[in-house]
Amino acid sequence: MASSASRGPRCRERSRRGRSARSSVAGGRSRSRSRAREGEPRALRELSPLGDLGALAHSEEGVEAAKSSKRPVRNQKPKGSPSDPNGPAPAETEGHGEPSRTSENGAVLPLKAPGKRGRKSKTEMLLLKLSQDLECPTPEPICVQKMLGSSETAEGLDTSPGGRPKRRAAKVALLYLQELAEELTSVYQPPALTEGAQEPQPELERIQKKRRSRRRKEDGTDSDDPTRDADFVPSKEILLQAEEEEGSEEPLSEVSEPEVEVLRGHSGKTSSAGRSKPQCRGLAPNGFHNSIMAPVEKCSSLTCSLRDQKYSQWEFPDWIPLAHKWTCLSESEAAPYLPAEEKSPFFSIQREGIEDDGVLYRVNRFSSLQPHEERLDVSFFVGGPVWAMEWCPSPEGSAASQYVAVYCHRSMEETHSVAGLHGGPALLQLWGLGTLQPEQGSANKAGLAYAIAADHGCVWDMKFCPSGAWELPTAARKHPQMSRLGLLAVAFSDGKVVLYSLPHPRALQRSKRTQVKDGSFHKHIICKVQCIATLQVGSIQAGNVSECGQCFSLSWMPSKPHHYLAAGFYDGTVAVWNLLTKSLLQCVHQPDGSLKLYPFQCFLAHDHAVRSIEWCKADSNFLVTAGSDRKIKFWDLRRLYEPINSIKRFLSTEVAWLLPYNGVTVAQDNCYASYGLCGIHYIDAGYLGFKAYFVAPRKGTVWSISGSDWLNTVAAGDITGELVAAVLPDLAINPLNVKRSSDRRFPVYKADLLPCSPDGSGGGEQALPLTRRYSEMVTKSYIRFRDTDLRSFKNFPSREPMRRMHTQEVKAELSLDRLQLESLHKVRFSPNLDSHGWLVSAGQAGIVRAHCMVGLASGVSRQLLPERRARFSSLYGDEPGSPSPTECSPLLQAE
């Protein structure tokens, strides 16, 4: 009994020593886990939803995901092997802090930070620490912010500093842990930290400091910039991008990476985990890809919101048209101003999907064809080559009749010198197209409302006041005042810019006509008009003859009160006038009651003529100019001593600055272009540093370009007679990676000059005459217009117009030995919401055509139109709209 009693304490002592020896290996792990959780609030430790078992499971998953990559592990084999009794015990790598060490007698030694050779990779450390943080989530969505310093970027997770290949599997593992953390934090939200609580995991701060110091040594800098020390938090866009690159098994759509990022921010469905899915796959109802139509929806809503801020309902209240300043001309008085051609060239129209009837049309001067019942297109003849054209703005939702101002040369063979000043007769025509709707046209023919006879030479450009100049046609005005349709600025070849206050056609008809000498009026209303103001370069002390040369381009300030007007001249000068100035040095009252205005600002923009000028619609402090010196310059009107950016490229003919972007779309001549680079480009102003985006290639000179803020689309007409439209991508991001830009452009119509037989019918096989005389050309040829069905774009790449356009881009035939009767000189999108899908175009033949892009109508615009009409009715009441064109003036019927 005594021996057994004495054996008891010794057995208990040996069993205690055995337990101590067996637990020596796990001692470091428990100590490191306790160290890692020092400073952590007790409430978070007690309310942890996972516990040790859950943390161990998730850390093993993270380690397995990290092992799936092929990157070699940095950790080397420690000295000694596991079978060596004298060697150190293997380090525990279960994701709970630093590995432990034991001495020969089993005692636990203090922890020591691993050296450079034994340190784990950044991705493995990230996975281990993430598994730790999953034990006790914090109010932050994920503890990546505590692990990564400023020296690590999004690319740092893909490529190591040593240049090792990218590791996509590590990204997928990181994404998987992110999803687990989001699911857990959505189920359980821990209590917020108290004011006296310390920041958890102080050991991580020490690791961050070491990494930052090592990074500074590698960079060779020791900057104290706080932006470099800011913690990096991977955004959801980066994680979703990693998922699309590695984890997604669905076929990706043909959309570039920047477009996907924009779509994430603007549309998408929210999943249960809180992520937004991009809506960039699939086809829109009109047949285009959703990635193509998404910027259209965005621009429509943005245009509406900015117009509410920038546009006005009423401006320039003193500039009202007066009846006694409009004198109607007789037949003999109007004859010198009329175009010489009384009949249009022969032309035919082939519409896609409709069998061609082979009919050749020839329209009388100032007459039009009946609009097509199905395709809605309109065609009319103005009498000569068209070189200036502009839509008259109307309020949103007014449902008013739409008007287009047109200027044409008096003769088909007439040319004008750009050097030197010259005057002569000119005729400004105002055409009424009726109440055009985005998806339905007018039931009546287009008609000439009235015309203005001027003696200032040919017209190079004209611009309407963007807003605040239109009033109801039934506005109560006492004689001699007439209801105002708009304010029009016209640039003439004598160097002057003339402002006209245009009345509504019905108001002009109601006013008493001035008696003419022979007592017979012209069958159309053709008037001599006293202008509101004449804008001239120089000063009061200078002579009347401008030293700047002819004025080639105009731009009206796009934001209210629209009191600035800019113009570009032959010698490279840009002048800016203040239309509301009261200064005696800038404003001179003439004996006839009109004003003569001098500019308050002039600067030399180019070494040669300013061919195009455009104001920034989003910020009125900025201008862009394109000159004959092949330069495109961006200007800040607050610092004109140097341009913001100057780009020397090809010879630019016209620029279009769309509302949402800080760059311009440029139409170019092919005289200086390399082979394959001529056409339409988007050029950034320089703020973002994007390279030029090739919108569409063209084989000939692009004479005109126009952009629609509602449709995010540009249209251009060239010397080959093709009218091409292109839906732009979101150019607020880098367009370098835009895929398949050829799917974004489409032809509106193509005009071809074909020989005709002696009896006047088409189909002749003889060659076209090589002559520049219109009289010979019109008797032996006719123009064939081939229109595209713009109601839908389904299966568009395989349709005949698209195949013809791509063939034309590769194998275009251009003959410069004859008169280019089919060429297009002017293209204009309607700026009005009520007719925002309509596009007018005209050229050498003098035939103006209007087309409706029904298929591009967006869902946003369909919603905006009823809202704006209800708003307009609440402001002005249910007033009748403008009369139809047939009520304004008699029409000549087409043959």
Question: Can I get a quick summary?
Answer:
The chain is of the alpha+beta class. The protein folds into two domains: 27-75 and 88-191 and 201-277, no CATH class; 323-560 and 669-888, no CATH class. The chain is 23% helix and 23% strand.
User: What strand line-up does the widest sheet have?
Assistant: 3-14-10-9-8-7
Task: Estimate the strand proportion.
Answer: 15-25%
Number of strands: 37
Oligomer: single chain
Helix content: 10-25%
Largest sheet: 6 strands, mixed
Chain-averaged pLDDT: 75
| Uncertain residue segments | 1-7, 20-116, 136-157, 187-201, 220-233, 242-278, 880-895
Shape: globular
N-to-C CA distance: 138 Å
Number of domains: 2
Number of helices: 18
Label this structure with key terms.
alpha+beta; six-stranded mixed beta sheet; 37 strands; 23% strand; disordered N terminus; disordered C terminus; WD40_rpt; WD repeat; transcription; RNA polymerase III general transcription initiation factor activity; nucleus
Give an account of the 3D structure.
The chain is an alpha+beta fold. The protein folds into 2 domains: 230 residues, no CATH class; 458 residues, no CATH class. Helices cover 23% and strands 23% of the residues. The chain is built from 18 helices and 37 strands. The strands form 8 sheets. A 6-stranded mixed beta sheet has the order 3-14-10-9-8-7. The protein has a 6-stranded mixed beta sheet with strand order 4-34-33-32-31-30. The protein has a 6-stranded mixed beta sheet with strand order 11-12-13-15-20-19. It is globular and about 100 Å long. This is General transcription factor 3C polypeptide 2.
